[in-house]
Design goal:
Elements (H helix, E strand, L loop, with lengths): L1 H48 L3 E5 L2 E8 L2 E10 L2 E9 L14 E5 L1 E9 L2 E8 L5 E6 L3 E2 L2
Parallel strand pairs: 1-9
Antiparallel strand pairs: 1-2, 2-3, 3-4, 4-5, 6-7, 7-8
């Protein structure tokens, strides 16, 4: 009888520990997701707020930052489920129909959707992470539209 009680107690403890391990794993994953998305959103916000101008070329919003005697055109895009930062240094401020750059700086991965929209007084950053709810952050406009 005591052997049966020990087995039952052992099964209960094992079950509780298994559930606890699953809960801890889920909590750890959620914290990592939150940390990754916070980093990406903070990085994008810093790029937007440090820009003097922004322009729209081919439906993409480019943030323009003066760098010494040149201008750095920065935009963000989704490629292979990752958000990339694209950057192109130009000699002069100007709007052309085509600005191309290779993205080498992935900010975060496992992204299902991403956009930056011009919404009047602010930019709306929308990020969809895997099967999670879409996150929307508003960044106040401090730069002027270059047309």
């Amino acid at each position: 009888m005591s052997m049966a009680m020990l087995l039952i107690i052992g099964m209960v403890i094992t079950s509780i520990l298994g559930v606890s391990q699953k809960a801890l794993t889920k909590t750890y994953e959620n914290e990592n997701i939150s940390s990754d998305l916070s980093y990406a959103l903070g990085y994008i916000k810093d790029e937007i707020t440090s820009s003097d101008y922004y322009t729209v070329v081919g439906g993409k919003i480019y943030f323009i930052q003066p760098v010494e005697n040149k201008f750095n055109y920065v935009f963000f895009g989704l490629k292979n489920n990752k958000i990339y930062r694209y950057s192109l240094l130009r000699d002069r401020l100007g709007k052309t129909e085509k600005i191309e750059s290779d993205g080498v700086n992935a900010l975060v991965d496992n992204i299902s959707s991403f956009s930056i929209d011009d919404v009047g007084d602010y930019f709306a950053i929308k990020i969809g992470y895997k099967d999670k709810e879409e996150i929307i952050r508003k960044i106040a406009k401090r730069s002027r539209l270059y047309e």
